[in-house]
Amino acid sequence: QGPQSAQSAADELRSLxxxxxxxxxxxxxxxxxxxxxxxxxxxxxxxxxxxxxxxxIAVRTELQAEALPPKGTQPGNVVTERLAPxxxxxxxxxxxxxxxxxxxxxxxxIGGSEELQQAVAAAAGDASKLLASSQQQMRxxxxxxxxxxxxxxxxxxxxxxxxxxxxxxxxxxxxxxxAAVGRLREVEGPPVPLVPEAEGATADGDGKDKKDxxxxxxxxxxxxxxxxxxxxxxxxxxxxxxxxxxxxxPAAAAPQGVLPGALSGAAARVAAALQPLAPATAKxxxxxxxxxxxxxxxxKPKVAKGARDFLPDQMAxxxxxxxxxxxxxxxxxxxxIDTPVFELRETLMGKYGEDSKLIYDLADQGGEVLSLRYDLxxxxxxxxxVNGIGNIKRYHIxxxxxxxxxxxxxxxxxxxxxxDFDIAGAYSSMVADAEVVKVLGEILTNLKLGEFEIKLxxxxxxxxxxxxxxxxxxxxxxxxxxIDKLDKEPWSAVRSEMVDEKGLPEHVADKIGEFVVLRGxxxxxxDKLCSPDQPLSQHPxxxxxxxxxxxxxxxxxxxxxxxxxxxDLSLARGLDYYTGLIYEAVLKxxxxxxxxxxxxxxxDDGLVGMF
Length: 611
What we know:
alpha+beta; three-stranded mixed β-sheet; 9% strand; globular
């Protein structure tokens, strides 16, 4: 499944287990024998997260496009082929989560009382029937899809299969929770009451009496001492199984003797209590949150994940670099502006394609839905629209925020600086584009970071490649996003994503592969692309792009800025708002290997018009 979602799930699990006395206590052969239901929890949860997000996007897209089955005699739009597979994939991962939960439930009962083991086996058996039923629904829908059906019927069946899989997963997780709580109740043991201190007794010099009393308060040797988080969970599950009023349940009141009774009958009650929108769930989650935060408060303070502190020597380097960058901006006549670090969420949404999920949303603080800025370009477009500005050449250095999975060693952070240079207004063709590329080359040369190259492509060339290869229009941006990963992943991995995840036919992906390998010196490759035997030279959209690129290369030659430029048809910036030229600068390491992207941008003719 997606590595980012799996890593995020792993981080959340670590946060919940931080400070636990039992975490990491299984050693040696006992640990090696753990099934995948334990060792792959993060991957499973990450897969569920990805599948839920994909299904949500597919359903939302259909609703917004009014692509629903016909009602009565009213004609309806054709449902796109992606809806049913996304719902079916959601059902698949939910069934996998249910199977893992049942495996863990039965393993939790091992070593417990015979009554507990029998109760868990019976409850797991009932849940397995639900799981088998949902899997049967999945197979039926899958068979219809394999026959090539594209009407609404498979979508309805896929939705019902996903609903059945969700019910099976909720039941299985409830059985797992009750099995774990039942086992905890058996191993915990009753607390030992405090023995009143004899009159006149005093503690000796080493404080043994004080330590003994502390040990007594924790239950002595009567059983495992549960942490506060485990107690909160146990109380909630036991009360739900007993049918208690959860809205008034105090944190310390645990009904006794509820488990390990007839778990099958209680599974539905626990499943209802674990519903995200159940009235008592908010109170339960709030208690867990307080426990987690209390554990974190006792730890040594640290910098938030994806952020960093800058020490004085690092600040000196950063200020020197900013000084060099700013001097180049000013030399080209740019003026400085500033915009808020947060924007209305509606300002940012719909501008970044698949990356919109990385936007940081802020809690409502007064009636406006706000988000931290993802970059400096969209706020600049809003700035131009709000202030009615015509032509402007501006620069802006500021922090931006992305809810990405950080990779500190590779320079990927959640908070980082961007140094933006933009030209807005009406100019002769490719004049502004040429100056921006020239500015980029000057900055990287003056910073003396080492050898670099500036890769160029054109959005209209990409769109023409998609059309010639046979990619459906609604998949253009998704496929471009996959192509954009070619600088990090081999073609085989990108092709697999196109076919397996994006639903592209194999022959279409292979046709795309013939284009994305084209790379070379700008004027030479441009001449090759303009030859009559090249399909791009015959396509109306790419013809316009080829003319613009020739004009650009002429300007850059006159400005002595063409030397570091490479024309690369595999460059596909993933953002939705680029309409023309796109570019990316990469540092070169040893043996011609690129270190990674350090600057990028493109032309966005329609961005200001969105406001």
